[in-house]
Amino acid sequence: MSVANDLSFHGKVAIVTGSGRPNGIGAAIAMALAIRGASVTINYVSDSSAPRAVEVAESIRAKGGKAAVVRGDVGDPEQARKLVKETLAAFNTDKIDILVNNAGIAPMTPTVEVTPEEMTSVFRTNVHGALLLVQAALPYMPRGGRIINISTVLSRMGLHSPVYSASKAAIDSLTYTWALEFGRKFGITVNAIAPGVTKTEISPPDDHPEVVRMLDMTRLAGRMGAIEEIADAVVLVASPLSGWITGQYISVSGGVNWI
Q1: Do the domain assignments include residue 4?
Q2: Which residues are within 8 A (CB) of 259 and not within 5 positions of it... i.e. 6 or more apart?
Q3: Cβ(114)–Cβ(160) below 8 Å
């Protein structure tokens, strides 16, 4: 008797928002899904990031994967719908199996210094963007679909980045609500993956005081996480192996704990 490969995504279509940065978490997630067979949309927002988004897609294709590149500001309702429609057209499909809400803005600004414009920008991308993508994608998601929100351990720790952390706490709350709202009715699972401090091209240096503080909290090793380790967690939650896991906040941080 043959055993199915439950980590295969052949025939699946995925959107990973904010995935146009080659050394970013979103790109790693897109790669991890694509090399396992998924057709993946790489999403970026600005002209300056277009070449890098193309680079991500080309690296996926070089490994035999399928990738489309779609520009779109997830915080804009029309562009969110465009992102979904262009994904359907690019892969000649009528379904979206996996939605990863990864796009985010992460300022370190203290509360007393944050401007109204920055507050609006963070919540527009981090919270409104996820809401709008879910609204746009849900009509095309079949039973067994997966919505995966990228959160952060900071949403529960109260350490720094107050506006960013608050926006991700909102995403955590939406995760729990959506799991019930979309689970019973549509058979879709919804989970939040919460990275700890992770090495990307925009992460602070290893000796940054807040990084040092976080590294001291890890249990497995005193280092930053790798983008591939975050992607591996997304692969597991997106797979059929996680069909009975929903409404969960999953810390992928080397054991950082807020208790």
Answers
A1: no
A2: none
A3: no
Q: What is the pLDDT of residues 188-243, one digit of tens each?
A: 999 999 999 888 877 777 777 878 888 888 899 888 889 999 999 999 999 999 99
Q: Which amino acid is residue 151, in one-letter code?
A: S
Interval 144-180: pLDDT, tens: 999 999 999 999 987 778 999 999 999 999 999 999 9
Statement: residue 33 has pLDDT above 90: yes
Q: What is the CATH number of the domain that holds 136?
A: 3.40.50.720
Q: Is residue 2 part of a domain?
A: no
Residue 120: predicted pLDDT: 97
- At residue 93, φ and ψ (nearest 5 deg) are -135, 170
Expressed as residue numbers, the domain containing 237 is 13-252
Model confidence, pTM: 0.94
How far is C-alpha 220 from the geometric centre of its chain's CA atoms? 23
Catalytic residues, by residue number, are 164
Phi, psi of 155 (to 5 degrees): -65, -20
